[in-house]
Amino acid sequence: MRRAVITGLGFITSIGNNRDEVLRSLRTAKTGVEVYPDFVDDPLVPISLLGTVKGFGFPSIDFEDWTFPDTYKMARELLRPMAPNTLYAYFAMRQAIDDAGLTTEQISNPDTGLMTANGGSMYMTYKNFHQFEQRGVMRSPPMAIINGIPGSLYINLVPAFHIKGATLGFSSACSSSSHALGTAVDLVRSGKQKRVFVIGAEDCNRYSVVPFAGVRALSVQKDPEKAPCAFDRKRDGFVGTGGGAVLVVEDLDAARERGVTRIHAEVLGWGQSSDGYHVLASAPDGSGLSRAMVQAMQDANVQPSEVEYINAHATSTPFGDSSEINAVKSAFPEGQRPLISSTKSLTGHGLSLAGAMEAGFCCLSLKEGFVPISAHITDLDPMCEGVPVITKPVDLAPKIVMNNSSGFGGTNVSVVLKKWEE
Fold first, then answer.
1. Which of 204, 229, 264, 349 is catalytic?
2. For residue 289, how far is the Cα from the chain centroid?
3. Considering the entire predicted model, what is its pTM?
4. Which domains does the chain show, CATH number per domain?
């Protein structure tokens, strides 16, 4: 079996719009969450906080009105069929391509594929249908059939980058981009593809976040220095975010053949499972996620004692965090449990974006020799006893880490990554 390594990273996130900004935020526990005026000004919206993506503006569905940082350029014909999430993904993909040092020929050939994860754009869908009702279909935006659906991400990116290899879109709730990553790893390890772009992206606005208030999943905290607070006794729900993250998963031999000198990490293995329990809630005993973690370690051929850090799914919901702690206790024997933290306490919860974004964070952790803390904890939940949740910086340069993702319907994915060493 071939070896899968990560040779490129790209980030458009609430804690930074490139690798260096993200790294600084993770090292210093700088939050990307802030009070969002669009929520505060609406008496019907019960939440105040959002993990905002800075430098981008989408005041209408007309792409001519959109704003983004001057460092990015976009051809009009590419921008026209996009949603905000697709724009985030496009710029993150440009970063990943530059980071990996890929040429046009290495991007556009049958050996290079693309796996995407996205929930679609409720913003574009709502506004488009409103125009249908008000103006009639024939006077509505011609790209409305494309820019709101979950498939919009690969529909736009495949022609934009002239991708000719395997392409697939994933929509498995908050596990989506981790499923995309695992599938990309399988394609590379089996020799079916030399490299695969893995892309997660979501909008960042009221339409992508506020509906979760209806199921009481969102925090009503008003202070971004206090929430989200995964694993804390006072946690009351997640804070939403959006953005885009891209990883280049590549066959090690193919990377060496083209002269790659910097590898971020090796993906040793992954596992997946289902809870079979509830449409919204994770299994309380964590049995589903535990099976995914055990399967990932078996696939990676590592022992529990070798895993040094877990980037937890931990969204700051009371029952979700508890379920994950139980899963860790089940998958790792007492005395062999790795350090654990939730970077969502800094970024907010990126939904389909989360898995790819946090796998990217794990790559930074391995490459730069640190582990990010779990922010805003002032009263660690007693249920965490026996599990070393990181509340302050620790002196550890991990060699093997795990990233967890879970989603509605009881989907679970765990990915094991290793520090690259020749």
1. 349
2. 17
3. 0.97
4. 4-257 (3.40.47.10), 269-414 (3.40.47.10)
Bridge partner residues of 58 (DSSP): none
Number of alpha carbons in the 13 Å side-chain half-sphere of residue 292: 30
Look at residue 131 in the predicted model and tell me its pLDDT.
87
If residue 250 lies in a helix (H) or strand (E), which one and from where to where?
strand 243-251
CA 312 to CA 404: how far, in whole Å? 5
Indicate if 313 belongs to the active site: yes
Helix extents (H) in 210-286: 252-257
Q: How far apart are CA 275 and CA 289, in angstroms?
A: 8
174 among known catalytic residues: yes
DSSP letter for 283, please. P
179 catalytic? Reply is: no
Amino acid letter at 112? T
Please, what are the averages of pLDDT over each run of 10 residues along the chain (422 residues)? Answer: 97 98 98 96 95 97 94 91 97 98 98 97 93 84 88 96 98 97 98 98 97 96 97 98 98 98 97 96 97 98 98 97 98 97 98 98 98 98 98 96 97 98 84
The amino acid sitting at 314 is A
| Cβ–Cβ < 8 Å for 237, 259 | no
DSSP secondary structure letter of residue 68: -
Torsion over CA: 64, 65, 66, 71 (sign): positive
Contact 123, 203 (CB under 8 A): yes
Residue 291 near residue 273, CB atoms below 8 Å? yes
CA nearest neighbour of 146 among 59, 82, 77: 82
**Rounded CA gap, 27 and 25, in Å?**
5
pLDDT given at position 143: 86
CB atoms within 10 A of CB 110: 11
Q: 137 exposed, middle or buried (CB, 10 Å; 0-12, 13-18, 19+)? A: exposed
The active-site residue, picked from 179, 264, 313, 376, is 313
Q: Which of 299, 281, 311 is nearest to 411 (CA)?
A: 281
Q: Which residue has the tokens 């589903």?
A: 288
